[in-house]
Amino acid sequence: MTKQQARRAARGPTGGPRVPARTRDRGESTAASLLQRQAGNRAVAGLVTRAGGPAATVLRHLRDPAAVSRSVGMPVVQRAPGPLTPQQESGAVIFNRGRYDQNSVRVIQVVVGTTVDGDFGPISAQAVATFQGGQGLAQTGLVDQPTLDAVVASAVSTGDQDYAIYAVADFFDLPVRTDTLSLRFDPALAVDSANRFEPGGLRVITIGATAMVSAQAIGDQVVLQFAVPAPAAPVVGPRPDLLTPPQEASAVSFDRSKFSDPRAVRAIQAAVDGGADGIWGSDTVERVAAFQDTAAILVDGKVGPVTLSHLVSQWDANGEQDSAIRAIVDFYDLNEDGLVDVSFDPGETANASTGSNAIPGDSVVRIAPRAFAQGFAGLVHTIAHEFEHVRQRRVGIQDQPLREFLGERIEILSIGMDEEDLTGFMNDAGRAIDEWDNVPAALQRVNFARFEEVRSKVRARLAAASGFERLPHLLTLARYEAVVRP
Amino acid sequence: MTVELTLVLPAALRRSDHAPVTVRLRNAGDQPVVVNTRMAPGYATSRAREVWLEVGGREDVSRRDYEREHAGPDDFAPLPPGAVVEGAFVLLDWYRFAAGAHRVIACYEADERGAAYPDDVLRGVVRSPVYELAVR
Q1: Spatial CB neighbours of A172, under 8 Å, sequence gap ≥ 6
Q2: Which residues on A lie below 8 Å from B40 (Cβ)?
């Protein structure tokens, strides 16, 4: 079993719905969070907010954090200074951990001015209470709706609308990763919100500035857009019969292992004229086979890189780029931890971009038409490059030249991805050495092994090229050869 | 070769505004000047950009990573005397500001290392006057 297969297996049944990142990455490491996990997020949240209910045991634990420690064998949550009582502090930790994932917690932590680590602990609870006091709100430490309104107002005031929308969707537990490819702020939108559909009933929802007035207003707009019915699906034609039963089974197994996000599956099903139910089966792989037959590529029902590249071309030609992005992210198993939103942005002038520094650890990725114009391999590399930035922001790599060097490194090493042609590869190599030259010496020392990996790959790729192909790149190679460990 | 760089931005700006600003390069001389017409935004220390801002004496207040190709031959063109080339970008997508008064200078570079510029291109960094920007 490869590492990738192991990670997929750890997620749940093969081919089943992937647990959304926002529930997978909740920061939970203390006894209180274990208790919350056992009792259930909403149940505990309800108990805390209503200060009553049937789970007396839970409430006893809230009043006595040491009891939590005794019952689950974990250390007591350390108290932090601030206006909350120990009971309030514990309750706030439990409530907020149940309500918010790490991305949202980071937004809250930035707004309330405490350490940003994505883990809502006692210090965060006390910081929220202090923030509430400054806002004239009851000092409970609970980021309830009135407090979230204040968080939203603060995030909007600093231009961080995408992050506010994310936190609101998280608070209301809106299923934004069920059939929504992107949920984002659009400053140019003249109405409160809008909805665009890509095939398979997949939504691209945008929220306008006029809706950014409160958590409720934002949530209402998302719900409103969820209520817009998807266009009627085309009538599905008769099932093709191009594969043998063993071939069908093999294809289903392969495709399940490669695509576990139902949105990606639905996009593919719609692209091959099938019923978009998000589940791999023999009908879908037969339709993939028919698509392959039409495209004059290997007919096996398996959506590998070649078939995916043809699908991406079709999506791009039809203006369905968000489906292409989702399928690539799923196929290449790009890590979405820390990702707030990824979408196609026709107004982006670069190939792609990743922001922002405003909420450390959180990222919004925009993929531009230029990225699609590079062709399939270049597009995959660009998306992988941006997701490397997502990782860097999550782990706190600050130096911009280093970030760009490491982004180019992902493209140059091309692990698990098709390689770009020599011109594209050497463009990456040229940018990488430019960036490396600007990395501070101390960071160059720490990252020199990574530079060596890149240099070896550049040498190998040029060594495999003809003399004629190599000639324009000798200067770049010389720059690599001239680098010594600082 | 004489060129003037100006920045068109509002006198006051809310930090919630995702409004575009315009950087304008004018040939103030009497001979054509070969310039990079792409006018793509970035930062002083980043690559593949023609335009960036210096804010309050700091050269780099970046808030996003971006991937862009270096300017190619098609991006360069002669700018006739009196003619203008300009580019717009959403200021707050690229730069963060604290509330308060800021002194902003726009910078332009046609001959960045890595760009496929012609030999007779405008050389060096061109700076605009200092602009006062009030951010709320």
Answers
A1: A215, A219, A222, A223
A2: 349-350
| Cβ of residue B18 closer than 8 Å to a chain A Cβ | yes
Cα A437 off chain centre by: 31
Where does residue A55 rank: exposed (0-12), middle (13-18), buried (19+ CB within 10 A)?
Answer: middle
Tell me if A61 sits within 8 A of A55, measured CB to CB.
Answer: no
Establish how many alpha carbons lie within 13 A of residue A346's alpha carbon, considering only the half-sphere containing its beta carbon. 6
- Picking from A209, A350, A438, the nearest residue to B66 by CB comes out as A350
Comparing C-alpha atoms, which of A258, A278, A256 is closest to residue A199?
Answer: A278
Closest CA to A407 of A351, A482, A345: A351
The predicted complex's ipTM stands at: 0.89
- End-to-end CA distance of chain B, in Å? 39
- For A78, half-sphere exposure in the C-beta direction (CA atoms, 13 angstrom radius) is 3
Q: Do B63 and A356 touch (CB under 8 A)?
A: yes
B101 touches chain A (CB under 8 A): no
Determine which of B59, B66, B96 to mutate to test the interface with A (most A C-beta atoms within 10 Å): B66
Strands of A158-214 (E only): list them.
180-185, 193-198, 202-207
Give A355's strand partners: A364, B64
Burial class (CB within 10 angstroms; exposed 0-12, middle 13-18, buried 19+) of A460 = exposed
Task: Give me the sheet containing B64-67, strands edge to edge.
Answer: A339-344, A363-367, A352-355, B64-67
What part of A 204-233 touches B (C-beta under 8 Å)? 209, 212
Tell me the residue length of chain A: 486
Residue A95 CA to chain centroid, in angstroms?
Answer: 24
Spell out which residues of chain A touch residue B89, defining contact as CB-CB under 8 Å. Answer: 349
Asked if B102 and B133 count as a contact pair (C-beta separation under 8 A), the reply is: yes
> DSSP class of residue A338?
T
How many Å apart are CA B108 and CA B125, to the nearest integer?
Answer: 6
Q: Could you tell me if A416 lies within 8 Å of chain B, comparing CB atoms?
A: no
Contact B68 A349 (CB under 8 A): yes
pLDDT in tens, chain A (486 residues): 443 444 333 333 333 333 333 433 443 334 334 333 333 343 333 333 333 333 333 333 344 444 444 444 444 455 678 899 999 999 999 999 999 999 999 999 999 999 999 999 999 999 999 999 999 999 999 999 999 999 999 999 988 999 999 999 999 999 998 899 999 999 989 999 999 999 999 999 999 999 999 999 999 999 999 999 999 988 999 999 999 999 999 999 999 999 999 999 999 999 999 999 999 999 999 999 999 999 999 999 999 999 999 999 999 999 999 999 999 999 999 999 999 999 999 988 899 999 876 888 999 999 999 999 999 999 999 999 999 999 999 999 988 889 999 999 999 999 999 999 999 999 999 999 999 999 999 999 999 999 999 999 999 999 999 999 999 999 999 999 999 999
Alpha helices in B19-132 (DSSP H): 91-94
Q: Which of A243, A185, A166, A176 is nearest to A203 (CA)?
A: A176
From the list A209, A210, A179, A211, the residue with the least C-alpha distance to A196 is A179
> CB–CB of B64 and A407 under 8 A?
no
